Amino acid sequence: MSKYKIYIPLLIGLAVAAGIFIGGNLDFQDKSDKLFTSNSKKDKLNRLIDYIDFEYVEDVNTDSIVDVTVNGILDNLDPHSVYIPKEKMKRTAENMKGNFVGIGINFYTFKDTITVIKTIENGPSAKAGILGGDRILEANGQSLLGETNDSLVEKLRGKRYSEVILKVLRKGEPDLLTFNVTRDEVPIKSVDASYMLTDNLGYIKINRFAESTYKEFIDALKDLKNEGATSLALDLRGNPGGFLEIAVNIIDEFLEDNKLIVYTRNKKGDEDRSYATKRGVFENGQVFVMIDENSASASEIIAGALQDNDKGTIVGRRSYGKGLVQREMQLGDGSAVRLTVSKYYTPTGRSIQRSYANGNTDYYDDFAYRVNNGELLDPSKIEVADSLKYKTPKGKIVYGGGGIIPDVFVPLDQKMYNETLSFLERKGYFSNFIFEEIEKDRQAYNAISKQDFFDNFQVDDQMVKDFENYLQIKTRSNIVFVAYRDQAKYYLKATIAEQLYGFGAFYKILNKHDTMIDKVKQLHQEVSVD
Which of 29, 49, 343, 427 lies 20 to 30 angstroms, CA to CA, from 415? Predict the structure, then answer.
């Protein structure tokens, strides 16, 4: 036997052992120079978790400990690096994608029964013939009575193109109705409203920048142009941001070829620059961008890019001040982290990220500080730093270091702004109360034409009183609208309009009483006269 044949099994064994060693230590995201090194920080955390798992005197949910640890680490980085637990990932992903697979209804659990407030326009339920006010009693033979909202969502959603058979109780019908509904993608709208403010001034309100936002926006913009819009009011108030590239695509519709839109810079100094292309469909139109203290991130990218390119007019109050870019990274167990990986800069070189040097608590208390120093009512109270002064190509002075300062300041409307009303609207109290009001005589409400409702319908004092009584029962608190009765009426009318007429109706009502909209109309008139 050859001596080489004797060594072959030994060599194979050594190769296998080496392969196991290398494979066990290999991180495919690591550079080659880290391949044979250990990470003592990672080892320390892993060892601690193992000690708790196997040696601690009582059983402990180490998953929750890991969650706390991850959050603690991120809290020491910046305010916008965040952890997303696996139980929240699906909802978060759907929200940013801009759709989910379901039957397409907004519902309210009324007296233990799932009741349709309205169907999503062109959604599966609307196509099947389900109407507002319908009670859904069964899905595929399973009773839905008394289910929690989460359980109802689970039973009504499913795979795309799968069928669900619904048993429905409808007022005026003696027997239960049966509907075969084919589940499909249902949009989560990011364009809340789109309509003409005047004969040639269009209006679009965007609530966030999801994957679907650009398509929604461009469809709305083209429709407005077909209706005669030569100017646009783009409402980004309260918009917290979203995908950077979606904001870039929207800005591209306003700026000429090769204009710088935004650039990002990472810790190594590497820059990624985005420029406008030739495709813009509104390059010759006048644009007014409305912002406020809750307009952040991608909203600020739009406002900053247009302002720095001397395009249009920024109207409102100083924006939030978020100039950090996050990237979502999976953690292997269904959870993820959105980690800040770079900063973005406007075309003049401004970073509009406000300081977080004093910690996250101080950072998030900034709104209260703005209220207390009077900034929301008086532009002279806005604090700026001369060291962060920049000039646009036409010589306009702009500032970095803490949000976009508008070209035209509009103070907070203290008559319309009321935290109680905003809270009640966000939590669905207006929507649920109005649903019950409409249910008292749905036929009478359905008989009102849309235009007649907008022009002539009035919410009376009795409805406001009924709403106060409803809130006392639901919230166990004595909420009365003595100083804000008219404002409560506007919200009630807007909510009725939304449930009866759908897309955009809510804001079409509220915007009639909006001082910032009035200012935009005034500015537009002045530009038109010039």
Answer: 427
